[in-house]
Amino acid sequence: MPLGQRVGDNSESRYCGVEVSFDDDIHTVLADNLAGGFDFVLAPLIDPKYRPSRSSLSPNDVPPFAGSDLVLSPAQWSSRVVGKISSWIDLDSGNELIRKDSEITLKQELAWATHLSLQACILPTPAPFCFSNYARTVNQMLPGLSNMQLWLRVPLVSPDLQEAEGTPNEDAVFLRRDSVSGRPVSDSWEWWNVFRMLCEHHSHLSVVLDITASLPSAWAIQRWLGEPVKAAILHTSAFLTNKKGYPCLSKRHQNLISTLFEHSVQIAVSGSSFHNLDQMELEPSNLVHANGSAGVASRHPLKLYLEYLSHLYRKLPPISEQERFELGYRDFLQAPLQPLMDNLEAQTYETFEKDTMKYIQYQRAVHAALLDRVPDSDASTTVTVLMVVGAGRGPLVRASLQVSAKPFIDVY
């Protein structure tokens, strides 16, 4: 069930998932986690032990997938399951057999995911700056995936940085470079940036972030907010324990999760529980089964982590009218209009005028242009005619007139 209700928020961030291990009874796995309060699962599509070169299957046999396509309804596969591509896959391995097995398995799993009508599949984390063949193969397959998205799994803080530096401080910017390639091995954003360029910035390629106990600098986090981050996997190892023995997050982690919620990013919990439910007094759960029973929900090992995320979500301030209006326009390039050729409706102009920042920037630009055009020595004698071409319903004219309130500018 959703983490909570927030006025005006109909985004996917209301729904929380959980990462599960491989199980050939996907129906039971999904049912148990839905009963525990989660909304979807991140589940492997095939037995991780499977290798095409070692398999006794004939070419016409079916690989060991996680259950038949009939064990769940198409709606359940589409809305409740995010597929996980096998993490052992390494298309840039120095071992030719591993490379071949990896490519075959990747194509088999994506073909199976397409057949199941999954909305998204998670690609395994690439090796730092050693993924040219991996990216090539993904780029070849992206055009044929129709409606399915691929989420590249990328750590928020790279493992080599965590091992070498410990927990990063808040203000540091880590650009430790590889001695051979010269690239910043610690900057996982660089991995993503190179990978997506090799995939020609395909619109079906997005990011899922791994969040652990270590966080990068505030600057590095802000940079990720400009990327197509669809989900974040929050590991239970990132949680602390409060005075009452319940899981909680550090202030920086709380701010990060709240920011991701506000950017319509879904959260999925991963890992084992570090808080023993049997040893603490359980409060009445707000996570109930569809039949109204709280019994199954209260026994889920990750229940307390889910309730804490629900608490963070419910603490978010209501969405303002301006933000509510902008939600449908986020991350989309708008089609250019031709106001001089077409007669636009008043509603179209009203939509444009809700973008207040555009007019603030326009006013600043006019002010800077006028100051630059006329030197201070001639300001008292020079008359500048300002023409607003294509003024719409007048907000551009008002912004230009407001320049007169600035020093050294007179508008008559």
UniProtKB/TrEMBL annotation:
Gene Ontology cellular component terms for the protein in this record: cytosol; nucleus
Gene Ontology biological process terms in this record: methylation; regulation of DNA-templated transcription
Name recorded for this polypeptide: Protein arginine N-methyltransferase
Domain of life: Eukaryota
GO molecular-function term, one example from the UniProt record: protein-arginine N-methyltransferase activity
PANTHER family referenced in this protein's UniProt entry, alphabetically: PROTEIN ARGININE N-METHYLTRANSFERASE 5 (PTHR10738:SF0)
Residues that, per the record, bind S-adenosyl-L-methionine: 349, 358-359
Domain PRMT5 arginine-N-methyltransferase: 321-406
Ranges for domain PRMT5 TIM barrel: 37-315
Organism expressing this protein natively: Ceratopteris richardii (Triangle waterfern)
Record-annotated site: Critical for specifying symmetric addition of methyl groups: 352
Record's keyword terms, sorted: S-adenosyl-L-methionine
